[in-house]
Design goal:
It is a single chain. By secondary structure, the protein is an all-alpha fold. The protein has one domain. The chain contains 16 helices and no strands. α4 packs parallel to α10 and α11 runs antiparallel to α12.
Length: 493
Protein backbone atom coordinates (compact mmCIF):
# COMPACT_ATOMS: atom_id res chain seq x y z
CA UNK A 1 0.00 0.00 0.00
CA UNK A 2 2.81 2.41 0.81
CA UNK A 3 4.41 1.71 -2.57
CA UNK A 4 1.12 2.40 -4.36
CA UNK A 5 0.65 5.58 -2.32
CA UNK A 6 4.11 7.01 -3.07
CA UNK A 7 4.05 6.14 -6.79
CA UNK A 8 0.65 7.70 -7.35
CA UNK A 9 1.43 10.66 -5.12
CA UNK A 10 4.49 11.29 -7.28
CA UNK A 11 2.38 11.23 -10.44
CA UNK A 12 -0.27 13.50 -8.94
CA UNK A 13 2.33 16.00 -7.71
CA UNK A 14 4.11 16.02 -11.06
CA UNK A 15 0.92 16.67 -13.03
CA UNK A 16 -0.28 19.35 -10.65
CA UNK A 17 3.11 21.08 -10.52
CA UNK A 18 3.05 21.18 -14.30
CA UNK A 19 -0.46 22.62 -14.52
CA UNK A 20 -1.49 24.46 -11.33
CA UNK A 21 1.23 27.19 -11.28
CA UNK A 22 0.41 28.09 -14.88
CA UNK A 23 -3.27 28.20 -13.97
CA UNK A 24 -2.76 30.37 -10.87
CA UNK A 25 -0.13 32.74 -12.23
CA UNK A 26 -0.97 32.74 -15.91
CA UNK A 27 -4.78 32.68 -15.94
CA UNK A 28 -6.60 33.10 -12.61
CA UNK A 29 -4.36 35.96 -11.49
CA UNK A 30 -4.53 37.62 -14.91
CA UNK A 31 -8.33 37.48 -14.88
CA UNK A 32 -8.41 39.42 -11.59
CA UNK A 33 -5.95 41.97 -12.94
CA UNK A 34 -8.02 42.44 -16.11
CA UNK A 35 -11.50 42.68 -14.55
CA UNK A 36 -10.39 44.55 -11.40
CA UNK A 37 -10.53 43.88 -7.66
CA UNK A 38 -14.23 44.73 -7.19
CA UNK A 39 -15.42 42.63 -10.13
CA UNK A 40 -13.37 39.64 -9.07
CA UNK A 41 -14.50 40.21 -5.49
CA UNK A 42 -18.11 39.89 -6.68
CA UNK A 43 -17.30 36.60 -8.47
CA UNK A 44 -15.31 35.32 -5.48
CA UNK A 45 -18.21 36.06 -3.16
CA UNK A 46 -20.77 34.37 -5.40
CA UNK A 47 -18.70 31.22 -5.97
CA UNK A 48 -18.12 30.89 -2.23
CA UNK A 49 -21.84 31.48 -1.61
CA UNK A 50 -22.60 28.62 -4.02
CA UNK A 51 -20.07 26.44 -2.15
CA UNK A 52 -21.97 26.95 1.10
CA UNK A 53 -24.81 24.84 -0.28
CA UNK A 54 -22.67 22.50 -2.36
CA UNK A 55 -23.58 19.62 -0.08
CA UNK A 56 -27.11 19.56 -1.55
CA UNK A 57 -25.48 18.56 -4.84
CA UNK A 58 -23.79 15.61 -3.22
CA UNK A 59 -25.17 14.78 0.26
CA UNK A 60 -21.81 13.17 1.09
CA UNK A 61 -22.29 10.62 -1.72
CA UNK A 62 -18.83 11.16 -3.25
CA UNK A 63 -16.93 10.41 -0.03
CA UNK A 64 -19.24 7.53 0.82
CA UNK A 65 -18.87 6.09 -2.69
CA UNK A 66 -15.07 6.40 -2.63
CA UNK A 67 -14.85 4.35 0.56
CA UNK A 68 -17.63 1.95 -0.47
CA UNK A 69 -16.23 1.11 -3.93
CA UNK A 70 -12.73 0.67 -2.47
CA UNK A 71 -14.14 -2.01 -0.17
CA UNK A 72 -16.72 -3.46 -2.62
CA UNK A 73 -15.53 -3.18 -6.25
CA UNK A 74 -18.36 -5.40 -7.48
CA UNK A 75 -20.97 -2.73 -6.68
CA UNK A 76 -19.66 -0.30 -9.33
CA UNK A 77 -22.17 -1.07 -12.10
CA UNK A 78 -25.21 -1.12 -9.83
CA UNK A 79 -24.33 2.04 -7.91
CA UNK A 80 -23.09 4.10 -10.88
CA UNK A 81 -26.40 4.12 -12.72
CA UNK A 82 -28.51 4.66 -9.61
CA UNK A 83 -26.39 7.37 -8.06
CA UNK A 84 -26.11 9.21 -11.39
CA UNK A 85 -29.90 9.47 -11.50
CA UNK A 86 -29.92 10.66 -7.90
CA UNK A 87 -27.32 13.35 -8.70
CA UNK A 88 -29.61 14.78 -11.40
CA UNK A 89 -32.42 15.10 -8.84
CA UNK A 90 -30.05 16.75 -6.39
CA UNK A 91 -29.02 19.23 -9.09
CA UNK A 92 -32.62 20.49 -9.31
CA UNK A 93 -32.82 20.72 -5.50
CA UNK A 94 -29.54 22.67 -5.40
CA UNK A 95 -30.77 25.18 -8.01
CA UNK A 96 -33.94 25.87 -6.01
CA UNK A 97 -31.97 26.34 -2.77
CA UNK A 98 -29.26 28.69 -4.05
CA UNK A 99 -31.72 30.87 -5.97
CA UNK A 100 -34.15 31.04 -3.06
CA UNK A 101 -31.54 31.83 -0.44
CA UNK A 102 -29.62 34.08 -2.85
CA UNK A 103 -32.74 36.18 -3.41
CA UNK A 104 -33.37 36.43 0.34
CA UNK A 105 -29.68 37.27 0.87
CA UNK A 106 -30.12 40.30 -1.37
CA UNK A 107 -28.76 39.15 -4.70
CA UNK A 108 -30.49 40.57 -7.77
CA UNK A 109 -30.02 41.21 -11.47
CA UNK A 110 -26.47 40.49 -12.58
CA UNK A 111 -25.66 38.82 -9.26
CA UNK A 112 -28.42 36.24 -9.80
CA UNK A 113 -27.30 35.76 -13.42
CA UNK A 114 -23.75 34.99 -12.29
CA UNK A 115 -25.11 32.75 -9.54
CA UNK A 116 -27.04 30.74 -12.15
CA UNK A 117 -23.94 30.05 -14.24
CA UNK A 118 -21.71 29.41 -11.21
CA UNK A 119 -24.35 27.06 -9.80
CA UNK A 120 -24.50 25.15 -13.09
CA UNK A 121 -20.71 24.84 -13.03
CA UNK A 122 -20.86 23.52 -9.47
CA UNK A 123 -23.36 20.89 -10.62
CA UNK A 124 -20.99 19.72 -13.39
CA UNK A 125 -18.03 19.77 -11.00
CA UNK A 126 -19.98 17.70 -8.49
CA UNK A 127 -20.64 15.10 -11.18
CA UNK A 128 -16.96 15.04 -12.17
CA UNK A 129 -15.89 14.46 -8.56
CA UNK A 130 -18.45 11.68 -8.15
CA UNK A 131 -17.28 9.95 -11.34
CA UNK A 132 -13.65 10.32 -10.18
CA UNK A 133 -14.53 8.76 -6.80
CA UNK A 134 -15.28 5.54 -8.69
CA UNK A 135 -11.85 5.60 -10.34
CA UNK A 136 -10.01 6.19 -7.06
CA UNK A 137 -12.21 3.61 -5.33
CA UNK A 138 -10.99 1.08 -7.92
CA UNK A 139 -7.45 2.32 -7.14
CA UNK A 140 -7.10 3.53 -10.75
CA UNK A 141 -5.06 6.47 -9.57
CA UNK A 142 -3.19 6.99 -12.85
CA UNK A 143 -6.39 7.62 -14.83
CA UNK A 144 -7.82 9.73 -12.02
CA UNK A 145 -4.62 11.79 -11.88
CA UNK A 146 -4.86 12.84 -15.52
CA UNK A 147 -8.57 13.66 -15.23
CA UNK A 148 -7.90 15.69 -12.06
CA UNK A 149 -5.92 18.30 -14.05
CA UNK A 150 -7.84 18.14 -17.33
CA UNK A 151 -10.29 20.94 -16.49
CA UNK A 152 -7.42 23.28 -15.57
CA UNK A 153 -5.53 22.41 -18.77
CA UNK A 154 -8.64 23.23 -20.79
CA UNK A 155 -9.17 26.46 -18.86
CA UNK A 156 -5.58 27.50 -19.56
CA UNK A 157 -6.12 26.89 -23.28
CA UNK A 158 -9.51 28.64 -23.45
CA UNK A 159 -8.72 31.63 -21.23
CA UNK A 160 -5.21 31.85 -22.63
CA UNK A 161 -6.68 32.33 -26.09
CA UNK A 162 -9.19 34.91 -24.85
CA UNK A 163 -6.74 36.88 -22.68
CA UNK A 164 -3.33 36.61 -24.27
CA UNK A 165 -4.57 37.19 -27.82
CA UNK A 166 -6.84 40.05 -26.67
CA UNK A 167 -9.85 38.37 -28.27
CA UNK A 168 -12.22 40.90 -26.70
CA UNK A 169 -9.95 43.92 -27.31
CA UNK A 170 -9.74 44.75 -23.61
CA UNK A 171 -13.41 44.03 -22.86
CA UNK A 172 -12.95 40.65 -21.16
CA UNK A 173 -15.53 40.30 -18.37
CA UNK A 174 -15.91 37.97 -15.42
CA UNK A 175 -18.86 36.38 -17.27
CA UNK A 176 -16.53 35.06 -19.97
CA UNK A 177 -14.35 33.53 -17.27
CA UNK A 178 -17.41 31.67 -15.97
CA UNK A 179 -18.42 30.56 -19.49
CA UNK A 180 -14.90 29.18 -20.01
CA UNK A 181 -15.27 27.13 -16.82
CA UNK A 182 -18.52 25.68 -18.14
CA UNK A 183 -16.86 24.50 -21.36
CA UNK A 184 -13.86 23.03 -19.54
CA UNK A 185 -16.00 21.19 -16.98
CA UNK A 186 -18.32 19.72 -19.63
CA UNK A 187 -15.42 18.27 -21.67
CA UNK A 188 -13.79 16.89 -18.50
CA UNK A 189 -17.07 15.27 -17.45
CA UNK A 190 -17.42 13.50 -20.80
CA UNK A 191 -13.86 12.13 -20.57
CA UNK A 192 -14.40 10.96 -16.95
CA UNK A 193 -17.69 9.23 -17.80
CA UNK A 194 -16.11 7.37 -20.72
CA UNK A 195 -13.24 6.21 -18.46
CA UNK A 196 -15.61 4.83 -15.81
CA UNK A 197 -18.00 3.15 -18.26
CA UNK A 198 -15.02 1.27 -19.70
CA UNK A 199 -14.71 -0.34 -16.27
CA UNK A 200 -18.37 -0.67 -15.29
CA UNK A 201 -19.82 -1.94 -18.54
CA UNK A 202 -23.23 -1.01 -19.96
CA UNK A 203 -25.42 0.98 -17.60
CA UNK A 204 -29.16 0.65 -17.14
CA UNK A 205 -30.71 3.85 -15.77
CA UNK A 206 -33.98 3.58 -13.89
CA UNK A 207 -35.97 5.40 -11.24
CA UNK A 208 -35.43 3.50 -7.99
CA UNK A 209 -36.68 5.50 -5.02
CA UNK A 210 -35.81 2.86 -2.35
CA UNK A 211 -32.22 2.76 -3.67
CA UNK A 212 -32.02 6.58 -3.60
CA UNK A 213 -33.21 6.68 0.00
CA UNK A 214 -30.76 3.92 1.00
CA UNK A 215 -27.81 5.81 -0.50
CA UNK A 216 -28.90 9.10 1.11
CA UNK A 217 -29.27 7.36 4.49
CA UNK A 218 -25.79 5.81 4.26
CA UNK A 219 -24.14 9.00 3.07
CA UNK A 220 -25.96 11.30 5.54
CA UNK A 221 -23.10 11.44 8.09
CA UNK A 222 -20.74 12.44 5.26
CA UNK A 223 -23.25 15.05 4.13
CA UNK A 224 -23.46 16.71 7.53
CA UNK A 225 -19.67 16.83 7.81
CA UNK A 226 -19.22 18.36 4.35
CA UNK A 227 -22.02 20.89 5.01
CA UNK A 228 -20.48 22.14 8.24
CA UNK A 229 -16.96 22.25 6.80
CA UNK A 230 -18.19 24.08 3.70
CA UNK A 231 -19.61 26.79 5.91
CA UNK A 232 -16.52 27.46 7.97
CA UNK A 233 -14.18 27.12 4.97
CA UNK A 234 -16.19 29.30 2.56
CA UNK A 235 -18.13 31.67 4.79
CA UNK A 236 -15.35 34.27 5.06
CA UNK A 237 -15.70 36.09 1.75
CA UNK A 238 -19.52 35.97 1.83
CA UNK A 239 -19.56 37.66 5.24
CA UNK A 240 -16.94 40.21 4.19
CA UNK A 241 -19.07 41.29 1.22
CA UNK A 242 -22.33 41.41 3.23
CA UNK A 243 -21.12 42.88 6.55
CA UNK A 244 -19.27 45.79 4.93
CA UNK A 245 -21.02 48.54 2.94
CA UNK A 246 -20.89 48.54 -0.87
CA UNK A 247 -18.46 48.98 -2.66
CA UNK A 248 -16.09 48.42 0.28
CA UNK A 249 -17.46 44.90 0.82
CA UNK A 250 -16.79 43.78 -2.77
CA UNK A 251 -13.34 45.40 -2.72
CA UNK A 252 -12.37 43.74 0.56
CA UNK A 253 -13.65 40.39 -0.74
CA UNK A 254 -11.34 40.93 -3.73
CA UNK A 255 -8.42 41.77 -1.43
CA UNK A 256 -9.08 38.56 0.51
CA UNK A 257 -9.31 36.62 -2.77
CA UNK A 258 -5.81 37.84 -3.78
CA UNK A 259 -4.22 36.10 -0.81
CA UNK A 260 -6.68 33.21 -0.72
CA UNK A 261 -5.63 32.22 -4.24
CA UNK A 262 -2.25 30.97 -2.92
CA UNK A 263 -3.88 29.21 0.03
CA UNK A 264 -6.29 27.54 -2.40
CA UNK A 265 -3.33 26.36 -4.48
CA UNK A 266 -1.71 24.89 -1.38
CA UNK A 267 -4.98 23.27 -0.33
CA UNK A 268 -5.28 21.61 -3.72
CA UNK A 269 -1.91 19.95 -3.23
CA UNK A 270 -2.84 18.87 0.31
CA UNK A 271 -6.13 17.53 -1.05
CA UNK A 272 -4.13 15.16 -3.26
CA UNK A 273 -3.14 13.30 -0.13
CA UNK A 274 -6.76 12.91 0.96
CA UNK A 275 -7.79 11.72 -2.51
CA UNK A 276 -5.17 8.98 -2.39
CA UNK A 277 -5.41 8.16 1.29
CA UNK A 278 -9.19 7.72 1.69
CA UNK A 279 -9.48 4.56 -0.47
CA UNK A 280 -6.13 3.26 0.81
CA UNK A 281 -7.05 3.79 4.47
CA UNK A 282 -10.49 2.26 3.82
CA UNK A 283 -8.94 -0.80 2.18
CA UNK A 284 -6.32 -1.23 4.91
CA UNK A 285 -8.87 -0.91 7.72
CA UNK A 286 -11.24 -3.38 6.02
CA UNK A 287 -8.48 -6.04 5.84
CA UNK A 288 -7.23 -5.14 9.34
CA UNK A 289 -3.85 -3.90 8.14
CA UNK A 290 -2.08 -1.39 10.43
CA UNK A 291 -2.28 2.21 9.16
CA UNK A 292 0.28 3.68 11.58
CA UNK A 293 3.22 3.58 9.18
CA UNK A 294 1.15 5.07 6.35
CA UNK A 295 -0.14 7.89 8.60
CA UNK A 296 3.36 8.76 9.82
CA UNK A 297 4.75 8.66 6.27
CA UNK A 298 2.04 10.91 4.81
CA UNK A 299 2.07 13.26 7.83
CA UNK A 300 5.84 13.65 7.63
CA UNK A 301 5.64 14.61 3.95
CA UNK A 302 2.77 17.05 4.23
CA UNK A 303 3.73 18.78 7.49
CA UNK A 304 7.30 19.37 6.31
CA UNK A 305 6.13 20.80 2.99
CA UNK A 306 3.42 23.01 4.52
CA UNK A 307 5.79 24.41 7.18
CA UNK A 308 8.43 25.26 4.56
CA UNK A 309 5.87 27.05 2.36
CA UNK A 310 4.14 28.80 5.29
CA UNK A 311 7.29 30.17 6.95
CA UNK A 312 8.92 31.17 3.66
CA UNK A 313 5.76 33.10 2.75
CA UNK A 314 6.05 35.18 5.93
CA UNK A 315 9.23 36.83 4.63
CA UNK A 316 8.14 37.40 1.03
CA UNK A 317 4.38 38.04 1.33
CA UNK A 318 4.47 41.64 0.08
CA UNK A 319 6.78 40.75 -2.81
CA UNK A 320 4.51 37.89 -3.85
CA UNK A 321 1.43 40.11 -3.84
CA UNK A 322 3.18 42.83 -5.86
CA UNK A 323 4.37 40.22 -8.35
CA UNK A 324 0.88 38.83 -8.84
CA UNK A 325 -1.23 41.98 -8.87
CA UNK A 326 -0.82 45.31 -10.60
CA UNK A 327 -2.62 48.65 -10.29
CA UNK A 328 -6.28 48.60 -11.29
CA UNK A 329 -7.59 51.09 -13.84
CA UNK A 330 -8.19 54.46 -12.10
CA UNK A 331 -6.50 53.30 -8.88
CA UNK A 332 -4.00 55.61 -7.14
CA UNK A 333 -0.52 54.42 -6.14
CA UNK A 334 -1.41 54.97 -2.46
CA UNK A 335 -4.57 52.86 -2.69
CA UNK A 336 -2.70 50.15 -4.57
CA UNK A 337 0.00 49.88 -1.87
CA UNK A 338 -2.71 49.74 0.82
CA UNK A 339 -4.43 46.89 -1.05
CA UNK A 340 -1.14 45.03 -1.43
CA UNK A 341 -0.18 45.47 2.25
CA UNK A 342 -3.60 44.16 3.35
CA UNK A 343 -3.29 41.14 1.06
CA UNK A 344 0.24 40.47 2.35
CA UNK A 345 -0.98 40.38 5.97
CA UNK A 346 -3.86 38.09 4.99
CA UNK A 347 -1.45 35.81 3.10
CA UNK A 348 0.77 35.44 6.17
CA UNK A 349 -2.20 34.41 8.30
CA UNK A 350 -3.69 32.08 5.70
CA UNK A 351 -0.36 30.32 5.13
CA UNK A 352 -0.26 29.37 8.81
CA UNK A 353 -3.84 28.17 8.35
CA UNK A 354 -2.46 26.03 5.52
CA UNK A 355 -0.34 24.05 8.01
CA UNK A 356 -3.43 23.23 10.08
CA UNK A 357 -5.51 22.44 6.97
CA UNK A 358 -2.83 20.04 5.74
CA UNK A 359 -2.90 18.06 8.97
CA UNK A 360 -6.70 17.99 8.81
CA UNK A 361 -6.49 16.29 5.41
CA UNK A 362 -4.44 13.46 6.96
CA UNK A 363 -6.27 12.94 10.25
CA UNK A 364 -9.73 13.81 8.93
CA UNK A 365 -9.33 11.31 6.10
CA UNK A 366 -8.21 8.58 8.52
CA UNK A 367 -11.17 9.24 10.82
CA UNK A 368 -13.54 9.19 7.83
CA UNK A 369 -12.18 5.84 6.66
CA UNK A 370 -12.57 4.50 10.20
CA UNK A 371 -16.27 5.53 10.40
CA UNK A 372 -15.66 8.16 13.13
CA UNK A 373 -18.00 10.60 11.42
CA UNK A 374 -20.01 11.44 14.55
CA UNK A 375 -16.89 12.73 16.31
CA UNK A 376 -15.74 14.55 13.17
CA UNK A 377 -19.12 16.27 12.91
CA UNK A 378 -18.87 17.54 16.49
CA UNK A 379 -15.39 18.92 15.80
CA UNK A 380 -16.58 20.56 12.57
CA UNK A 381 -19.58 22.09 14.35
CA UNK A 382 -17.24 23.57 16.96
CA UNK A 383 -15.12 24.98 14.11
CA UNK A 384 -18.21 26.57 12.53
CA UNK A 385 -19.22 28.25 15.81
CA UNK A 386 -15.69 29.64 16.28
CA UNK A 387 -15.44 30.83 12.66
CA UNK A 388 -18.85 32.49 12.55
CA UNK A 389 -18.44 34.18 15.94
CA UNK A 390 -14.98 35.56 15.16
CA UNK A 391 -15.99 36.74 11.69
CA UNK A 392 -19.01 38.63 13.05
CA UNK A 393 -16.80 40.26 15.70
CA UNK A 394 -13.67 40.99 13.66
CA UNK A 395 -14.85 41.89 10.12
CA UNK A 396 -16.60 45.19 11.03
CA UNK A 397 -13.40 46.44 12.71
CA UNK A 398 -10.53 44.80 10.79
CA UNK A 399 -12.21 44.06 7.44
CA UNK A 400 -10.72 41.15 5.47
CA UNK A 401 -7.74 40.86 7.84
CA UNK A 402 -10.16 40.06 10.68
CA UNK A 403 -11.60 37.23 8.59
CA UNK A 404 -8.10 35.81 8.05
CA UNK A 405 -7.58 35.73 11.83
CA UNK A 406 -10.90 33.90 12.19
CA UNK A 407 -9.80 31.31 9.62
CA UNK A 408 -6.46 30.73 11.39
CA UNK A 409 -8.14 30.22 14.76
CA UNK A 410 -10.76 27.84 13.32
CA UNK A 411 -8.34 25.65 11.39
CA UNK A 412 -5.88 25.47 14.30
CA UNK A 413 -8.51 24.36 16.80
CA UNK A 414 -10.02 21.72 14.48
CA UNK A 415 -6.55 20.38 13.59
CA UNK A 416 -5.63 20.00 17.27
CA UNK A 417 -8.92 18.25 18.09
CA UNK A 418 -8.59 15.84 15.16
CA UNK A 419 -5.04 14.98 16.19
CA UNK A 420 -6.12 14.28 19.79
CA UNK A 421 -9.01 12.11 18.56
CA UNK A 422 -6.72 10.07 16.27
CA UNK A 423 -4.25 9.64 19.13
CA UNK A 424 -7.03 8.43 21.43
CA UNK A 425 -8.60 5.97 18.95
CA UNK A 426 -5.52 4.51 17.26
CA UNK A 427 -3.04 4.82 20.17
CA UNK A 428 -0.19 5.78 17.84
CA UNK A 429 3.22 6.14 19.42
CA UNK A 430 4.50 9.73 19.26
CA UNK A 431 8.08 9.94 18.05
CA UNK A 432 9.68 12.66 20.18
CA UNK A 433 12.69 12.63 17.86
CA UNK A 434 10.32 13.49 15.03
CA UNK A 435 8.78 16.34 17.06
CA UNK A 436 12.22 17.75 17.93
CA UNK A 437 13.23 17.58 14.26
CA UNK A 438 10.13 19.58 13.33
CA UNK A 439 11.08 22.28 15.83
CA UNK A 440 14.62 22.30 14.43
CA UNK A 441 13.19 22.74 10.93
CA UNK A 442 11.06 25.69 12.11
CA UNK A 443 14.05 27.39 13.78
CA UNK A 444 16.25 26.85 10.72
CA UNK A 445 13.56 28.26 8.41
CA UNK A 446 13.00 31.37 10.55
CA UNK A 447 16.75 31.96 10.83
CA UNK A 448 17.17 31.42 7.10
CA UNK A 449 14.38 33.89 6.38
CA UNK A 450 16.13 36.65 8.32
CA UNK A 451 19.47 35.83 6.67
CA UNK A 452 18.02 35.90 3.14
CA UNK A 453 16.04 39.11 3.68
CA UNK A 454 18.38 41.12 5.92
CA UNK A 455 21.95 40.04 5.19
CA UNK A 456 22.14 38.57 1.69
CA UNK A 457 21.77 41.08 -1.14
CA UNK A 458 19.94 39.05 -3.77
CA UNK A 459 16.82 39.58 -5.83
CA UNK A 460 13.87 38.54 -3.71
CA UNK A 461 12.75 35.95 -6.27
CA UNK A 462 16.11 34.17 -6.01
CA UNK A 463 16.10 34.40 -2.20
CA UNK A 464 12.57 32.96 -2.16
CA UNK A 465 13.54 29.98 -4.32
CA UNK A 466 16.78 29.37 -2.39
CA UNK A 467 14.92 29.41 0.92
CA UNK A 468 12.40 26.86 -0.34
CA UNK A 469 15.17 24.60 -1.64
CA UNK A 470 17.13 24.99 1.60
CA UNK A 471 14.04 24.07 3.61
CA UNK A 472 13.51 20.84 1.68
CA UNK A 473 17.24 20.00 1.98
CA UNK A 474 17.09 20.48 5.77
CA UNK A 475 13.97 18.25 5.87
CA UNK A 476 15.90 15.52 4.07
CA UNK A 477 18.89 15.87 6.44
CA UNK A 478 16.56 15.66 9.45
CA UNK A 479 14.87 12.64 7.82
CA UNK A 480 11.49 14.32 7.90
CA UNK A 481 11.56 13.55 4.21
CA UNK A 482 13.33 10.20 4.34
CA UNK A 483 14.64 9.63 0.82
CA UNK A 484 16.16 6.24 1.71
CA UNK A 485 12.82 5.01 3.07
CA UNK A 486 10.97 6.26 -0.03
CA UNK A 487 13.37 4.43 -2.35
CA UNK A 488 13.13 1.20 -0.35
CA UNK A 489 9.31 1.31 -0.41
CA UNK A 490 9.20 1.93 -4.16
CA UNK A 491 11.61 -0.98 -4.76
CA UNK A 492 9.40 -3.36 -2.78
CA UNK A 493 7.78 -6.10 -4.86
Amino acid sequence: MQKKFLKNLGLLLFLNLMVKPMWILGVDRQVQNVVGTQEYGLYFTIINFSFLFYIFLDLGITNFNNRNIAQNNQLLNKHLAGISMLKLVLGVLYAIIIFGIGFLWGYKGRELYLLAWVGFNQFILSFILYIRSNLSGLLLFKTDSFISVLDRVLMILICGFLLWFNFFEGLFTIEWFVYSQTAAYLITLIVAVVAVINKSGKLKFNWNLPFFLLIVKRSAPFALLVLIMSFYNRLDSVLIERLLPNPLGKEQAGVYAQAFRLLDAGQNFALLFAVLLLPLFSKMISIRESVEKMVKLSFSIIISGSLIIAITSQFFATDLMQLMYGINTGETEQHYMLRISQSAIILKLLMFSFVAISTNYIFGTLLTANHNLKQLNFIALGGLVINLSLNLILIPYFYSIGSAWASLATQSVTALLQFLLVYKIFKFKISFKHVINLFVLIIVLITGGFVFTEFINLRWELSFILMLISGFCVSIVLKLLNVKEFISIIKEK
